[in-house]
Amino acid sequence: MVDLVRFLAGRWTVERTLRWGDETGDFTGTAEFRPDGDGLVWDEEGRLRWQRYDGRARRRLLVVPAGDGWEVRFDDGRPFHPLDLRTGAASAVHPCGEDRYEGDYRVVGDDELHVRWRVVGPAKDQDIRSRYRRA
Predict the structure, then answer these.
(1) For 22, left (φ over 0), alpha (ψ -120 to 50), or beta?
(2) Least C-beta-crowded within 10 Å: which of 38, 47, 83, 123?
(3) Can you say whether the dihedral through the CA atoms of 123, 57, 130, 110 is positive or negative?
(4) Structure pTM?
């Protein structure tokens, strides 16, 4: 059984591949999960190579208590999706306009987490795969 905050807290390396149709890209960087109140601040930064862009990228998410579980939120507080890794795996869905984000989280060991997002919609067909390894 995985204790979410204890498992995620700390610094991780991130390797991410992005695919949209025939185009591919990648992100390489770090993620840091810092305690904040009862939850975590999830900061990522690194290098993104996508289409003609090759440069710095960053994002911030929040992991906050929600009922008897946890929820991932955008940095402005809007809900993204619930997250329950107690069994070592979780699925999530996030509707965004006419697009649908379908996520899968999988704990691979004490120091590795895999996350995959499929994004489908009228104008999107993306596959985003991330590998987090404890630094």
Answers:
(1) alpha
(2) 123
(3) negative
(4) 0.94
